[in-house]
Amino acid sequence: MSFDKPDSIMNSARSDFLHVARERGYIHQTTEEGAFLARLQAGPLAGYIGFDATADSLHVGSLVQIMLLRLMQRTGNRPVVLMGGGTTKVGDPSFRDEARPLLSDAQIETNKAGIRKVFDAFLTFGDGPTDAIMLDNAEWLDRLLYIPFLRDVGRHFSVNRMLTMESVKQRLERDQPLTFLEFNYMLLQAYDFLELRRRHGVVLQMGGSDQWGNIVMGTDLIRRMDQAEAFGLTTPLITTASGAKMGKTAKGAVWLNADRVSPYDYWQFWRNTEDADVARFMGLFTELPMNEVARYAALQGAEVNEAKKVLATEACALLHGRAAAEAAAETARKAFEEGLNATSLPTVVSALPAGIVDVLVEHKLVPSKGEARRLIANGGIYANNEPVGAIDRVLSEADVQDGVIRLSIGKKRHVLLKPA
Questions:
Q1: Which H or E run contains 394?
Q2: Does the structural domain 262-338 have CATH classification 1.10.10.10?
Q3: Whole-prediction pTM value?
């Protein structure tokens, strides 16, 4: 990944980081903003975001944080990606009803490798002053001695205060168990910040709004133990205009790795953005100049669909590259505007004959058999552009046209089924 297209963000001074981040909608809270701005003006700084390795890909729910790291780099600062090889073994309890499942060391390593692919698309890694670096907190957390850690670090934490943190308080108020293992998570996250400041001069921690308490704990720990300044910044929780959590669809999470969600399906996810969200998402998830975003925001009626296509192509280009994004846009044009069986549509393979409900569930085109039956009953599933009609419909070789069966889930999602 390289920044080879100068724009208004490329030309911004380091201290413009806060201005641009706020203008584009990335900021929810900051600590000591006046002092933070003064530190930005004094020279390049390093800021980090932590990502636990709970899956082999990140999803759209992490995209605001990734874009914020990218903005840091584009404004002359150094982004630091901290992989939670250590904290993944504990599990972040923030706003969860139950403990995360414990993963093996081998699974954590596999997940870390998958997540690295996402960041290679958004950041330039290297040894230069603004090049990104990727670190793993297992490097220091796995070596901690328990009693010395409690004496040196734990004594700076008040249990009374920890119990007031939203991530803990909500679990306790709902009378849901919080293990002592999870309760330690905020100590470890604060200690990460301390170690990163000492090892790499990192003075800024960023994260989602649910991380505010943990981030403030880190800035306090640095002040108490090193008598040094440190800053925190959180991003807002992103929901759609209808109130749905960002990045969730009927199929589940919208993953960022291409082997999880194809470039075409990723493009389609953005193309299906609600009308009221288009301009806001352009600010958050593309690098279009904000005056251009404002122009798209003024569109009404059918013209909004053109803005959605621009959003989809720009967001897809950042992750998968311009060529893949434009290919997805062209595939969509052929599939929806010309009604063709575009060969670049996502493809699944099934033995025939096969019941339509089984095919939909097996290939995760719908989340459950119940949802498949509901869609079929409501006329929402098509085979070769014709409503399936019956819940017990069986697809057979007689349905194959030009080597495939075109399946449509609603009007906007299409796949090609090839006989095994």
A1: strand 394-395
A2: no
A3: 0.77
